[in-house]
Specification:
Structural class of chain B: mainly alpha
Distance between the termini of chain C: 33 Å
Oligomer: heterotrimer
Helix content of chain B: 55-70%
Largest interface: B-C, 116 and 111 residues
CATH topology of the largest domain in chain B: MetI-like fold
Order of helices and strands of chain C: HHHHHHHHHHHHH
Shape of chain C: globular
Largest sheet of chain B: none
Number of helices of chain C: 13
Number of domains of chain C: 1
Strand content of chain C: under 5%
Chains: A alpha+beta (346), B mainly alpha (300), C mainly alpha (285)
Number of helices of chain B: 13
CATH topology of chain C: MetI-like fold
CATH architecture of the largest domain in chain B: Orthogonal Bundle
Largest sheet of chain C: none
Radius of gyration of chain C: 24 Å
Number of domains of chain B: 2
Chain lengths: 346, 300, 285
Amino acid sequence: MEIRAEAITKRFGEATVLADVDVHVHAGELVALLGPSGSGKTTLLRIFAGLEQPSAGRILLGGEDATQVPVQARGVGFMFQHYALFRHLTVAENIAYGLKVRPRASRPSNAAIRARVTELLDLVQLPGLERRYPAQLSGGQRQRVALARALAVDPKVLLLDEPFGALDAQVRRDLRRWLRDIHERTGHTTLFVTHDQDEALEIADRVAILDQGRLEQIGTPDEIYEHPATAFVAGFIGEATRLPVEARGGVVRLGPHALALNGTRLADGPASLFVRPRDLVLADDGKANALPANVVAVRRAGPARRAELHLGEGLPTVEMELPADAVIGKGDVVQVALTRLRVFGG
Amino acid sequence: MSRTMMPETSTRGVPAPPAPSAAVTDEAPLTRWVLIGAAVAFLLLFLVLPLIAIFAEALRRGIAAYFASFADPDTQDAIRLTLLVAAIAVPLNVVFGIAAAWAVAKFDFAGKSLFVTFIDLPFSVSPVVSGLVFVLLFGAHGVFGGFLQAHDIRIIFAVPGIVLATIFVTFPFVARELIPLMQEQGTAEEEAALTLGASGFRMFLTVTLPNVKWALLYGVLLANARAMGEFGAVSVVSGHIRGLTNTMPLQVEILYNEYAFVGAFAVASLLAGLALVTLVAKALLEWRYGDALARTHRHG
Amino acid sequence: MSLATHATTFRFRQPSALPGFGLTFGFAVTYLSLIVLIPLGVLVARASGLGLEGLWQTATSPRVLAALKLSFGVSFAAAAVNAVAGLVVAWVLTRYAFPGRRLLDAIVDLPFALPTAVAGIALTAIYAPNGWIGGLLAPLGVKVAYTPLGIFVALVFISLPFVVRTVQPVLADLDREIEEASATLGASRAQTVLRVILPSLLPAVLTGFALAFGRAVGEYGSVIFIAGNMPFVSEIAPLLIVIQLEEFNYAGATAIATIMLAIAFVSLLAINLIQAWSRRRFGHV
């Protein structure tokens, strides 16, 4: 089922947490809400669930206005950041909860509920843990139980708040693929909140980036990574260094150097240039857009090597990924070229 | 007002001290034993001795005289009235405590801290004043005195006054147990129940209540002990009418003033027994279900 | 936030998906008003009817003055004794292992659980001239029961748990590392206790003292049995309220009650100030 947030604004007292946000998730899609803390992503997720009311705007579930529909009737599966498992109920009772609270007419038989619990425990790979209490589970197991509980009611939509937030790094990586897997098997329309860009870019079909309550960009991971739409996205995604530049007549000035914009439209005035390690290559003298740079340090970064470069007085150092055969060291002066210019006004 | 306004409920959660070792943070053995001796002597002298005295005085004339004193119809009426008053006051305060804790712990609203301060007010008022306020309202020369007399309704020097005064003095017990615990627990479990389709009432019964049941019992224990044992406030509104408005503590006073010491201490021994049962139950709750009480009650 | 902050209208309650606020809050406020606020309000209204002059006249009448002096003086002494003894008890219960520790810890709450009238007659039986302790003291010429000393004993009993229970959690949370740090810096154990531990316990001790004092001033049940209740000698202020009421002198009772309430609020205020100060300085209560 497709879901849609239309012009959602949310204010808490004086603070505006979401401003005019539109997000559309297609049926069966897995979409990440990505942003730094305080960007409003969890609030948006809670508005989708009906746990918060928007100050303005509409929530559409399956094309129908659900803004006034109470949380109980929205048919969403919500997974809480710290799971919110019922501590006084066993794993099986937690998973069965949503079925047991149904009115008698639509409540499955006890046998059917038991079968559903077993089926879900198999799905989340926790068979045999029915009788455990949440306190007797590891973090990763709790997360799986929480997901099973959310799935038990056959939700039309899955909403996950920082699904991996409370886990340690290795478990996170394993569970990422597992979640993607579950999504592919169950086909639920899924929206999840994360502050971890690797997570979002790896498993989401599309990523919505929020900052300070505004939707900055929504697109596939490739679009987001290769074509950031705003200065915030350019700085937030990848390991970019921001360099202050001055745009004038189709050229940006970086310290003493001038770089041709090559078609990028930019209003005259101060602007920001974002440089990622892979945007820089060693260049011959005199090549267009080539700059001289002082090598401050050469370091290993996992499989690659990187040079830390100083491009001029008053500029922060930038990093460049080096080819394996590059023979440069600290103190050298090299010519480098930018393979692409990510420049944003302001 | 903070938690320290409620020492009835303050921590018992003392972790077992580490085995004596020659650590730099230990005192010399002599110092240690002098301190232990002083503390134990102080508690024996001021707490344990009076407790023993109650039972010793009650049994001074032998076991037969002890049991004979419960044959007194006035004493039996006092016991009945005490049970009745507690049976009315405690449940009412339970309902209030749950309602207040739900509103305070799960919602943000203007004036919340003032509201919480007001809940604690009865604990900072002298028991005598707690009784006095109801005399000022419903007594012969009170605000509603004329109206009540005209309609022949008795509140002061009657059971309703005793119930009101008891509700007043036991007012905060349940609420102050539940509020900090429910604040600690947050709202996520309730929200999870709602997203799974539970109605508000269902959510309360299946999620909220099971999570606070031990704390609720803890509050009920303390409230009940106070309700059955309250003297000052009840004394002011009771009128000491034998067989009608005497609760157990008032009966203790009457018998004592009549030099019926065995009878007085026999009734007192019942109340002391109730106090001991309360202390044991309270200690058991802290020991066994410490995790399910507000943090200040947990064992380390 | 770089976003424009909108001027929003005042909101009584932040919205929430949880149900039942109106019902529970409405009930709680109604019940609170009926049981606590309106009755106390009537007392205040009555008192303001008397005017400051009327209050002053009552407060300074010799008998009332004597009772107030007695109540506050003896309560202060009892709270002070408990500040020291309570600190020692809390220390021993928190820091040392010895047989019966748990039992002793549980019994500290006895004064909260034991009805005050019961405590009153038990203490009187012990401290009367023919009692277990009174009998020992009588040959020395010390009379406890039916004197202000008896009031002191009763007030020590009923206010005993306050300091213990406020100091215990703070002591339990005290990080052993700060004591070890003190030792590594060359302090003797006594210096560590005096310069490191006691200062961090001071706010809790003061809070416990104020609570014990507030409770003792208002105490009635345990005192009247042991006090002897002689006007000008061993008559406490709460008893005077009862006497005024028995004479249907509502104005007199109200005046004394108001004075005691005012002083109770001063001690509450003191507690809050101590706690605010403690939070600022130590980050905890």
